[in-house]
Amino acid sequence: MTDIKAMLFDLDGTLLDSAPDLVGSLNWVRHTEALPPLQVADMSIFASKGAVGLLKAGMPESDEAVLESRRLRFLDHYAENSFQHSTLYEGVAELLDFLGESEIPWGVVTNKIEALTFPIIEAAGLMETISCIVCGDTLSESKPDPAPVSLACGILNVEPGNTLFAGDDIRDIQAGKAAGTQTAAVHYGYGSHELTGSLVEDSYPVHHPADLINLLR
Question: How far is residue 76 CA from its own chain's centroid?
Answer without folding.
Answer: 20
